[in-house]
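In this section we turn from sequence analysis to structure. A common task in structural bioinformatics is to predict how a protein folds when a small molecule is present, because the ligand can shape the pocket around it. The inputs are simple: the amino acid sequence and a SMILES string for the ligand, here flavin-adenine dinucleotide. Study the lines below before reading on.
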Amino acid sequence: MSTLVVAEIKGDSLKKVSKELASAGRALGGPVAALIFNGTDDQCKELLSAGADVALKATLAEYSPQGAAQIAAAVARARGAQLVLLPHSIQGKDFAGRLAVKLGAALVADVVGVKGAAGDLEVRKPVYSGKAYASVKVKGPAVLTVRPNAIEVTSYTGESKIEAVSEGEGSVTARLSDIDASGGSKVQLQDASIIVSGGRGIKGPENWPLLQELCDVLGAALGASRAAVDAGWIAHSHQVGQTGKTVSPNCYIACGISGAIQHMAGMGSSKYIVAINKDADAPIFKVATYGVVDDLFKVVPALTAEFKKVLG
Ligand SMILES: Cc1cc2nc3c(=O)[nH]c(=O)nc-3n(C[C@H](O)[C@H](O)[C@H](O)COP(=O)(O)OP(=O)(O)OC[C@H]3O[C@@H](n4cnc5c(N)ncnc54)[C@H](O)[C@@H]3O)c2cc1C
């Protein structure tokens, strides 16, 4: 099935989800074209090795949802793409709807799995705050936003190339004027494959360094429960849950978090959940893959020390 992947860059790096999308397109049979705005050849090569047949370099002087949708729609039409995959990121969500309208395609958001053939897709997505999964049948062209970490990156060694595309952004009436990046974690929560999260059990903001040290050793992002955010211990940008971020890492380490339904709505689809809580009856243990019933102030430093030894 002819698939167009729209890649995303953060700083100087290609976001891992972009490679996941290329691999998803490859698993559906290809051909796969990957569109990248202002990308480098090295970033294009990463897309090619993850499943794209062709990496298409486009120029977008300044990001706008209108401009991005205009270019992506023109490229999708030119290549006869029946499926367009975007990251379920702030940027992907920002222009996926506009792109679907331009292409007359169905839009399914927050996808965690896709199979089928052109014009007959079956798409899996969480519903009811992650308490259930829905299978959505799509009978025509489709635009999907795919949750980071939901698809495995596979390597591709087929024939591939890098091309420049000349589609313009058209007339743009709304532009992003500013981004306030204050309070963000060192590693972005939604892209992280490991998250260490703290709740009311960490007792106060002076104890974040304990969790941050574990994050640094594991290359993890720092998350928090709403109780910790509401107490003013950390910025809302770290909050995981129904009124915070939805994450799907390979490993979620919950420290001093009880596991309220609203918290689990944001992290329940994590592959492995590790809970550290001194209350054996805490609901988090119902979803935990591994549980430690003990004081986090004892367990977290011990884990950090052990991981330092193992990971060097
Ligand atoms: C509409 C709505 C939306 C909400 N949205 C969110 C959301 O997005 N995200 C979210 O997280 N919550 C959300 N909540 C709040 C949610 O209901 C809970 O109140 C919140 O998740 C509790 O946070 P917590 O687990 O950190 O605190 P608590 O429930 O107080 O749990 C603290 C835990 O720490 C353990 N503990 C204490 N000391 C230690 C120690 N030394 N070592 C180990 N364990 C220890 C305790 O045993 C306890 O289980 C929402 C609520 C509502 C009503």
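The domain at 3-164 is CATH 3.40.50.620 (Rossmann fold). As an exercise, try to locate the residues that line the flavin-adenine dinucleotide site and compare them with your own expectations.
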